[in-house]
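Translate sequence into structure tokens.
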Amino acid sequence: MSVLNAFTTQMVHFFDELCNTFPEEKDLKMATEGIKGAKKINPRLILDLFVEHVYKSCSTAIYERNMHVIRRHMQDTVTTQFNDMLAALSIFDKHWDTMGTKNQDVIWQYLKVLCHLSEKAAHAI
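Result follows.
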């Protein structure tokens, strides 16, 4: 399995998990379908979107588990643009404070793995 394939597979799993956890969030469901389609047609697009809209601005905050930085980034960015990656980050604003610690830990782990895989995939391409 290539690093890019591992990254896109992990991203699909992350979005599927978010959809199962927050079934009322229609934007997440639409974003998940978009990511699944992009994985089949242009998997590099998923990596590029993640790097541009999440990794560059939030990787340090993800590694430090700094929810406040991610929330602020999401709030600033979602008002000017929308993409599938921001649908996932919106959970920090909408649900983080009421979410259990176990769910928070799972989300941090997914984001950390996605950051690591994106670093490896970017260097492999």
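Note: The chain has one domain: 3-124.
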